[in-house]
Amino acid sequence: MREMRRSIIAASPSFLYALLSRSHFSVARICRCEYPGYGSHRSVFCVSDSFSNNLTTVNVSSSVSNRLMLFSTMAGTILVQARDPAKLNMEILNAIDEWRYSETWKLYDQHMQMEGFPRKSVVNRLLTGFAESLDVQWLEKAYGMVEQAFQESKQNLLEKDPLIYLSLALAKCNLPVPASTILRKLVETEQFPPVTAWSAILAYMSQTAPGAYLAAELILEIGYLFQDGRVDPRKKSNAPLIAMKPNTTAFNIALAGCLLFGTTRKAEQLLDMMPRIGVKADANLLIVMAHIYERNGRREELRKLQRHIDESCNLTDIQFRQFYNCLLTCHLKFGDLDSASNMVLEMLRKAKEAHNSLATATLVLEAAGNDNKTYTAHTSGPNPSQNKPDGSHNNSLTEHQIISYDEFSRDRNFVKLGNEAKEVLLILLAKLQTQVELITTEHGILQPTEKIYVKLVKAFLEAEKLQDLARFLIKAEREDSPVSNDDSALVHVIKSCISLGWLDQAHDLLDEMRFAGVRTGSSVYASLLKAYCKANRPREVTSLLRDAQKAGIQLDSSCYDSLIQYRVIQQDTQGALGLFKEMKEAKIPRGGNAEFERLVEGCAGNGEAGLMAKLLREIKEGQKLDSGVHDWNNVIHFFCKKRLMADAEKALAKMRSLGHTPNAQTFHSMVTGYAAIGGKYIEVTELWGEMKSLASSTPMKFDQELLDSYLYTFVRGGFFVRANEVIDMMEKGDMFIDKYKYRTLYLKYHKTLYKGKAPKYQTEAQLKKREGALSFKKWVGLS
Question: What does the record list as coiled-coil region(s) (predicted)?
Answer without folding.
Answer: none
